[in-house]
Amino acid sequence: MSYRVELVTDRRGWRDFFALPFVVYRNDPLWVPPLEVDERRTLDVSRNPYFRHASLRLFVCRQWGQPVARIVLIVDERHQSEGSPKTALFGLFECVQDDEAAAGVVEAMLAECRAQNVDAVEGPFNPNHYSPVGVQTNRFDVGPAFFETYNPAYYPALFERLGFTVSKVLHTWRNDGVADYVRQRYGTVTVGGNGHFSTRQVDRRHTAAELERLRSIFNDAFANNWRFVPVSREEYRFSAKGLFHVTRPELVTFVEYDGEPVGALLCVLDVNPLLRQLRGHIGPLSYLRFVRLRRQVRDLVVYAVGISRAYQSTPAYELLVRAMCATAMHCRSLSTSWISDDNRPAIGAAERLGLESYKDFAVYRKHVPEVCHA
Question: Rounded distance, CA 237 to CA 203, Å?
């Protein structure tokens, strides 16, 4: 069938890499095209500080000269642990409904894994702290919320035919009538404080310092979470560059103990309906329209909520739940980024606001054979 897989090294390769999703989703009105400028920035190994400790390879499969599949391979030394199989990450997978095309990019990726003595691959993960994870496996009749993976319904079966197995299942949670739920259950919600504990909103006058406080809290809070690795100051600032384009000060809450931040709630606007209209490209006029329409968004996503480990069994948890309730009273719907089944505190907080398990996302793993049979 005239398939050819190549490592992306030139202008044509990059062009085809970014063009492929528009082929895969051309008849899908629910798809939200990523901004190409953001994807290029993320994949620029000279700019993205993530690649100071990780390598990147991009592969494109073409049929009769046209792109039909793509994948990236990331070898991050921080994901390795002594005595465990060396595991690489894959991400940004897209493919038309064609098993041979998918097998082509997977075979090329596995060949590179063998060259780097990698024992297994796992994903999809993307080389950015702020990025979706996994393959969507249900509810293909509704579009994605911001930070939520979206893919064709044939992807899960495709990965299984390629010899991948599910290593983890993640979930997003959602309540489409959260404001009414909170009012009916809790009445008027005030956050306030509790003894040594107090709350405050983010201070935009000191953005860099506030980002560093968020990074410090989340690094400590998530230290024992599945697949989490600490994020450096440079990585966090790089990934969070556009954060305040999709949030507002009242959506970011700190819990402090005697004036020191020990917990944080980070909510963002679900701007996907606006991004869908941009079709992957943004200019001065479309940016101004985005900013104007952003004021009307009343759907929110809880991107991250965490408490430093030393304070996780203190009133800080209750204050963060109250902050979530107070925020929810002013929005239409509230959803979460992915949550694993073993994260009971996050699930408990979601249930307090009437959120229910909404979408499922599978993380896939594949052993790297000595001779590739993908």
Answer: 16
The ranges of the chain with pLDDT < 70 are: 1, 81-83, 129-130, 371-374
Residue 358 token pair:
């909404």
- The DSSP code sequence of 315-330 is THHHHHHHHHHHHHTT
Rounded CA-CA distance 275/282 in Å is: 9
Q: Quick check: 132 and 147 in contact, CB under 8 A? A: yes
As a whole number of angstroms, the distance between CA 167 and CA 72 comes to 19
For residue range 231-273, what is the model confidence (pLDDT) as tens digits? 999 999 999 988 999 999 999 999 999 999 999 999 999 999 9
**One-letter amino acid identity for 134?**
G
pLDDT at res. 373:
47
- For residue 55, the SS3 value is strand
Tell me what pLDDT residue 130 has. Answer: 64
Q: Name every residue whose Cβ is closer than 8 Å to that of residue 260 and which is 6 or more positions away in sequence.
A: none
Q: Is 337 within 8 Å of 303 (Cβ atoms)?
A: yes
Cα–Cα distance, 170 to 110 (Å, whole number): 25
What would the pLDDT profile of 260-308 be if each residue is shown by its tens digit?
999 999 999 999 999 999 999 999 999 999 999 999 999 999 999 999 9
How is residue 61 written in tokens? 């499969």
CA distances (Å), origin 110, targets 92, 122, 313: 16, 12, 44
Distance (Å, rounded) from C-alpha 125 to C-alpha 186?
Answer: 38
154 within 8 A of 366, measured Cβ to Cβ? no
pLDDT for the residue numbered 188:
80
In contact, 190 and 327? CB cutoff 8 Å: no
Amino acid identity for residue 341 in this structure: D
20 contact partners, CB below 8 Å, separation of at least 6? 60, 67, 68, 69, 70, 94
Contacts of 174 (CB under 8 A, 6+ apart): 145, 333, 334, 335, 336, 355, 356, 358, 359
pTM over 0.85: yes
Closest CA to 20 of 58, 56, 70, 59: 70
Number of H helices, E strands in the chain: 11, 14
Q: Please give the structure tokens belonging to residue 234.
A: 């440079």
Q: Distance of CA 271 to CAs 58, 118, 245, Å?
A: 28, 38, 10
